[in-house]
Write a structure and sequence with these properties.
mainly beta; 7-stranded mixed sheet; 4-stranded antiparallel sheet; 11 strands
């Protein structure tokens, strides 16, 4: 059974940093495109970053502040977030799509598997 478990969320003041983690299990991690998304109530889910075994990409909206990385030996995905802003407040999700390479854009990903999310709250 595929399982994605996010952790690392919390409350932080503007300008602060958080590192989210997503522990993956139940599948061959190296054969999946992994991604981070966020969502606020009433809004569509926003793709933030994607990574596969050869490349990584971060959305323009968070470029320069967010970094995606992974530990393939431990099947763990990370999202390092710096200089956080109140607009970054959201539920953050990791996701997995069964293909070894993510492709050109985050928008092209169609994840089938999702974690339960971790809340990030940034206060001003």
């Amino acid at each position: 059974e595929i399982e994605l478990v996010e952790s690392g969320g919390g409350s932080v003041q503007a300008g602060g940093s958080l590192r989210l983690a997503c522990a993956a299990s139940g599948f061959d991690y190296g054969q999946y495109c992994m991604a981070w998304y966020r969502q606020t109530p009433g809004n569509q889910r926003e793709g933030l970053a994607m990574i596969d075994k050869s490349s990584a990409k971060v959305a323009d909206s968070v470029k320069g502040r967010f970094t995606v990385s992974q530990d393939m030996n431990n099947s763990t995905l990370y999202l390092q977030m710096t200089n956080l802003k109140p607009d970054d407040t959201a539920m953050y999700y990791c996701a997995a799509e069964r293909r070894p390479y993510c492709g050109a854009t985050i928008a092209s990903i169609m994840p089938w598997n999702w974690g339960q999310g971790t809340q990030v709250t940034v206060s001003s």
